[in-house]
Design brief:
The protein has about 210 residues and is of the alpha/beta class. It has nine helices and five strands. Helix 1 packs parallel to helix 9.
């Protein structure tokens, strides 16, 4: 069994790097598929999981959730409406899906706290993809089709939320190099270069044989 987790700053292209790694190794990729699996398990829409993943709820959201659980009768709307799953339930199901994915075989897991859930395992390679802030902003602006000024706020907010998400639920520092085996600057290496390094290391560490180039 061998697993690679890819944690990534928003705008660093970590999902693209993960896809390249999975394709090169012939492993399963759990990125958006993980979102779909969590949504199916909870019986909610994938869009709802996407909106709540890798972020902590605001104070207003936490108060509303607490109020809904303690006094559901005062909420507007039909009393038969199903309440959304709590943050704790969302994390619990996410951890379960990650654990089940590992049992099925070699895989590349993207974000969602996988590096924390699997921190104690010895058959996992933990990778962190980062880039200087201007590069993150430029990539996000291009991907989203917005100005760099607009992208600046999105990049800062997304990365702040990812940091808080890992700290809140696993008491770990998301961007601390000590939590990873490999930290890659995707601006300097490029997405292909970053993926090649991970593939080479994975083949060496997991005894997968030599990498062949066409």
């Amino acid at each position: 069994m061998a697993i690679i987790t890819i944690s990534r700053m928003y705008g660093a292209g970590g999902s693209e790097v993960a896809a390249r790694i999975a394709e090169a190794l012939g492993w399963d990729l759990l990125d958006n598929a993980l979102v779909d699996a969590v949504a199916e398990q909870l019986g909610i829409a994938s869009t709802e999981v996407e909106e709540r993943e890798e972020r902590v709820p605001s104070l207003v959201q936490r108060l509303a959730a607490a109020l809904a659980l303690s006094s559901p009768e005062i909420l507007p709307g039909p009393t038969s409406a199903t309440l959304p799953p709590s943050e704790e339930r969302l994390i619990q199901v996410t951890e379960h899906i990650i654990t089940e994915a590992v049992r099925r075989g070699n895989a590349v897991l993207v974000g969602r706290g996988a590096q924390s859930v699997l921190a104690s395992r010895t058959d996992v390679l933990h990778v962190f993809c980062y880039a200087p802030r201007p590069a993150l902003i430029a990539r996000a602006a291009k991907r989203l089709g917005i100005s760099e000024k607009e992208a600046e706020h999105i990049v800062d907010e997304k990365n702040h939320q990812r940091e808080q998400y890992v700290r809140r639920y696993w008491k770990r520092a998301w961007s601390a190099p000590a939590n990873y085996h490999l930290c890659l600057n995707t601006e300097w290496l490029g997405l292909d270069g970053a993926a090649d390094i991970v593939v080479r290391l994975a083949r060496e560490r997991f005894g997968l044989g030599a990498l062949r180039f066409g």
